[in-house]
Amino acid sequence: xxxxxxxxxxxxxxxxxxxxxxxxxxxxFVLGSGAVGGRDHTGDVIFxxxxxxxxxxxxGEQRALPSWSYETAExxxxxxxxxxxxxxxxxxxxxxxxxxxxxxxALSPSVSNGFPFARAAVDIAMHxxxxxxxxxxxxxxxxxxxxxxxxxxxxIGIDQPEVVAERVQESSAYHAxxxxxxxxxxxxxxxxxAAAEHTAGKPIWLDANQSYRPLALHTLLDxxxxxxxxxxxxxxxxxTDWAAMQRLRSDLSLPLAIDEGSFSAADLARTATLGxxxxxxxxxxxxxxxxxxxxxxxxxxxxxxxxxxSGLTDCGIGFAAALHLFTGLDLALPAELNGPELLDxxxxxxxxxxxxxxTVPTGAGLGVVVDEERIRGTAIARSFTTR
Length: 387
Hints:
Largest sheet: 7 strands, parallel
Low-confidence stretches: 1-6
Number of helices: 15
Shape: globular
CATH topology of the largest domain: TIM Barrel
Strand content: 15-25%
Mean pLDDT: 95
CATH class of the largest domain: Alpha Beta
Oligomer: single chain
Strand order of the largest sheet: 7-8-9-10-11-12-13
CATH architecture of the largest domain: Alpha-Beta Barrel
Structural class: alpha/beta
């Protein structure tokens, strides 16, 4: 057996573990599609641990938020255990493209992505392990860093105007503000104006999370047209209403971003053909992994669509993965990666965040140290697959 064969055999994945952890929030956080989490409402996170024959460990994670997308914590656990883990055993962490093809065959993407959250958790773990095998950070596997640090955008949930104003003031170090809106025109006008009094002219990124009808949206934007810093409006209408997005992009003076309506590179290609968005929000979770997210970014660049960076209230593993991805992309606004802002615990050590600027990790793999003891100590469900 030659050295290359020995290295390949040692890098083979021999076990896959998934753990369901209820993650506590610092405060309530509400979107147009419903509550994300709060002091009495934990968030469901699935952590994935891959182990190779040589004992190299890779970690991934993904948030389950069925009010935002269809995957539940239970479905992610089952999909990983029953469908994805058997495909992984015997592969190496470098086989992310082969894994993706096998996963798409086993779980049809239909018209978009098939179980992308479950696949993204596994994909992040594969990249973490691959980086550790070669002793390089994940961003080196994706093309390298373009920047060393990434500015962050604060996420301001739906609430009373005085609470919104308080949240903005608490987040004064942040470099932009994503203001969630609810579909109630009067309430949203009051909230946006309350926020704008304290944003100091920094960019304001409105996010409706599918809560608006086109006519009501026109009314809202007419009433706040004088607010300084308004930069874009994200996914105002239901994700399947591409025709409304197309009409709104023609009618609105404010740039229009697509999020829930664009999970994959193919989705964005259709959006571009329809002329239905000026910007696209890229999330690792909906993309089914890091390289699929890069493919979406490539489609955006080819069609003159700008990129917005976001997550889904990720813990430290998902947050680190996002930093490795977004360091190589040209972002239109500071990244809205709100896990450190909203969560009580990130379950990792090694992240560097100061003045609302995150340093891209440079250690092997994701470059963070996972608190496995805490994950295991708070897990409420577990699956384990081995060869």
